[in-house]
Write a structure and sequence with these properties.
- The protein is α/β, with parallel strands linked by helices.
- It is about 45% helix and about 20% strand.
- It has four domains: about 1-10 and about 25-115, 3-Layer(aba) Sandwich (Rossmann fold); about 120-145 and about 165-195; about 205-375, Rossmann fold (3-Layer(aba) Sandwich); about 375-430.
- The protein has helices at about 15-20, 30-40, 65-80, 90-100, 110-120, 125-140, 165-200, 215-225, 270-275, 275-285, 300-310, 315-320, 335-345, 360-375, 390-400, 420-430; strands spanning about 1-10, 45-55, 85, 105-110, 205-210, 240-245, 255-260, 285-290, 325-330, 350-355, 375-385, 400-405, 410-420.
- β9, α13 (about 335-345) and β10 form a beta-alpha-beta unit.
- InterPro entries: G_HFLX_dom, GTP-bd, GTP-bd_M, GTPase_HflX, GTPase_HflX_N, GTPase_HflX_N_sf, HflX_C, P-loop_NTPase.
């Protein structure tokens, strides 16, 4: 479908307008247009025209002024376009009035993102989350669904005003569907919690990838784990979360989680619907914030990600302790800028510069993950008797083995480095403390 993309730029005319613009004030108008166009192309729309529209005073009924509406109407006719994407929230009334003025389909930013998520969802959980977000979005727009029907009157004067029967019946059906989906998603949340509880019994640390959409999370995920997750130069190329085991250089096993990409002005319907998925981030021992350093607006994108993390319950202080910044796509930078950025990352305690495409810096990232998860390491030498050799797999999975000697009597001597908790756990398994539960073996 041929589409026109419009990015309204609202001028700050008062306190309310300033608050409404706080999320986009750090981003350039050109980058907003580029992102909106990218979102449209992510669902195979043919964008024939894009424009930045200055709005001095938003109109309650149409958002845009009469002159701009007429100008865009001419563009639609000239370009033979039947769809207008407005990169700004629209009320149901504004959406309906603009469709009447332009004789074309109109969707706002929220509707566009919901459409993309609907295309990308491939698992049952993802489909449930998108359906719930879409129904909550449509609930306030039901009046538009029946503009093509004749208004119906009550049979004996007791059914209320014209049109009420059909719209109210549809609203009840929609609400019933919302309640059903919420129950199913609650079951998903419980299932995820059960899986997390089982993982804690085999204590592999969780490392979660977060970042702005198209920052390169899935490409980095594939590079680190060898997985085959879809990774394309496209906004929201992947939607459903993926978990894989990852072995660190010193042999420790962790679980790496790839999550849905964030975006500025992420619809609240989506944040609520995807809370079950995003709980994986809340439970993570370490969060890797992947940033596209080749994007001029990467600082604004990083602020958007941190804002969403704060909404999920990860405050700034907690984020500083659990978060590592991964400066990705350094291969796209000029040599001088690349060298300066790499040196800056090397001098920082919580930053690693990488290229997920070429693999540069990934070894350093794995080493940093190991360092951050290692805690205070205890050095010790353990001798496993013949009847304790079944513990070897556990030792290699949970400790750093610096040396091993297989003795003539069949025992094994190991020089180990491991955390305090794991040292206590090993003592229990060796019979020097309380016996671990059977399921821990």
């Amino acid at each position: 479908m041929r589409a026109v993309v419009i990015v309204p730029v609202l001028k700050k005319t008062g306190r309310q307008s300033a608050d409404a613009l706080s999320a986009t004030s750090t981003r350039t108008d050109e980058s907003r247009l580029e992102e909106a166009t990218g979102l449209a192309r992510a669902i195979d729309l043919n964008v024939v025209h894009g424009a930045i529209v200055s709005v001095a005073q938003p109109k309650p009924g149409t958002l845009l002024g009469t002159g701009k509406i007429e100008e865009i109407g001419h563009i639609l006719v000239e370009q033979d376009a039947g769809l207008v994407i407005v990169d700004h929230p629209l009320t149901p009334v504004q959406q309906r009035n603009l469709e009447k003025e332009w004789n074309a389909k109109v969707i706002d930013r929220t509707g566009l993102i919901l459409e993309i998520f609907g295309r990308r969802a491939s698992t049952k959980e993802g489909t449930l989350q998108v359906d719930l977000a879409h129904l909550n979005y449509q609930k306030g727009r039901l009046v538009r669904s029946w503009t093509h029907l004749e208004r119906q009157r009550g049979g004996g004067g007791f059914m209320g005003g014209p049109g009420e029967t059909q719209i109210e019946a549809d609203r009840r059906l929609l609400q019933d569907r919302i309640v059903k989906l919420e129950r199913e998603l609650e079951q998903v949340r419980r299932t995820r919690q059960l899986h997390r509880s089982k993982r804690k019994k085999v204590p592999h640390p969780i490392v979660a990838l977060v970042g702005y959409t198209n920052a390169g999370k899935s490409t980095l995920f594939n590079r680190m784990t060898g997985a085959g997750v879809l990774a394309e130069d496209m906004l929201f190329a992947t939607l459903d979360p993926t978990l894989r085991r990852l072995k660190l250089p010193h042999g420790r096993m962790v679980i790496l989680s790839d999550t849905v990409g964030f975006i500025s002005d992420l619809p609240t319907h989506l944040v609520a619907a995807f809370r079950a998925t995003l709980e994986e981030v809340l439970e993570a021992d370490l969060i890797l914030h992947v940033r596209d350093l080749s994007d001029p607006d990467n600082q604004a994108q990083a602020s958007d990600v941190l804002r969403i993390l704060a909404d999920l319950g990860i405050d700034e202080k907690e984020a500083a302790a659990r978060l590592v910044e991964v400066w990705n796509k350094i291969d796209r930078l000029e040599p001088e800028a690349r060298e300066a950025l790499t040196n800056k990352a090397a001098s920082s305690d919580n930053t690693v510069a990488v290229s997920a495409i070429t693999g540069e810096g990934v070894d350093g990232l794995l080493a940093e993950i190991g360092r951050r998860l290692s805690g205070v390491l205890t050095e010790c030498t353990v001798v496993l008797g013949v009847d304790q050799l079944q513990l070897l797999p556990w030792v290699y999975e949970h400790a750093i083995v610096d040396g091993r000697e297989d003795l003539e009597d069949g025992t094994v001597s190991l020089d180990l480095r491991l955390t305090e908790n794991e040292a206590v756990d090993l003592e229990r398994r060796l019979g020097n403390g309380p016996k671990p539960a059977a399921e821990d073996w």
